[in-house]
Amino acid sequence: MNTSIVGRHIELTEPIKDYVNSSIEIFKKYNLDIISVGAIISQEEKNGRKAFTFEFTLNIAHLDTVVVKQKDKDLYAAIDIAVDRVSKVLRRHHDKITGHKATKLSEVEAIEVQDEVAAQLEKYENEIIPVKLASYKPIDIEEAVESLKASEDLFKVFYDKDDNLRVLYKAKEEGKFGLY
Question: For residues 49 and 61, what is the distance between their CA atoms, to the nearest angstrom?
């Protein structure tokens, strides 16, 4: 990353240069391909008051040039505010890039398992008829036996009074039932 610090109408001292360079180092944490960073510091005086203008110009690969200008009475405050604004732009771009990454391996494995189950169900598509439970309220085993006797169904799935899922089925012997 090329860096350049330019002072207009102000003498650049070593502490100012070091502060700007340390501020530029913050941008490396976003892992973007920053080609160059230009910092322009200018001082102007209006009505007897000094004001500092700090400008960052960042050239980033695969992104437009980012330009941030900040004006303040204090040079270091202007630098800090400009760094925050540039960091916000870089963070948003970084989040945009990382948000479009490929799916995780664990997600791929879960999708493969779902696809396998779906493929197995398709084999029996004509043979299996999905049926929902008629009632989710708990019933007694006696009620389930009477309900199964009255219907032509081979089994009945229900919740008992202890909230256990049960299956009552007709056995091969006439008048006998099995219970899971």
Answer: 39
> What b/e sequence results for 14-41 when a residue is b if at least 16 CB atoms lie within 10 Å of its CB, and e otherwise?
eebeeebeebbeebeebebebeebbbeb
Identify the sign of the CA torsion 147, 149, 150, 153. positive
Q: Give the pTM.
A: 0.54
pLDDT of 117 higher than 90: no
Q: What is the mean pLDDT of residues 71-96?
A: 92
Taking alpha carbons only, the member of 59, 56, 77 closest to residue 67 is 56
Q: How confident is the model at residue 15 (pLDDT cuts 50, 70, 90)?
A: very high
Alpha carbon of 3 to those of 36, 39, 95, 129, 165: distances in Å? 6, 8, 24, 70, 70
Residues 6+ apart with CB under 8 A from 4: 36, 37, 38, 39
Taking residue 118's Cβ as centre, other Cβ atoms within 10 Å add up to 9
Q: How many CA atoms lie within 13 A of 168 on its CB side?
A: 21
3-state secondary structure of 83: helix
Q: Which DSSP symbol is given to 176?
A: -
Q: Tell me the one-letter amino acid at 91.
A: R
Q: In this structure, what token pair is assigned to residue 115?
A: 């696809």
Minimal CA–CA distance to 166: which of 129, 147, 124? 147
CA 108 to chain CA centroid, nearest Å: 17
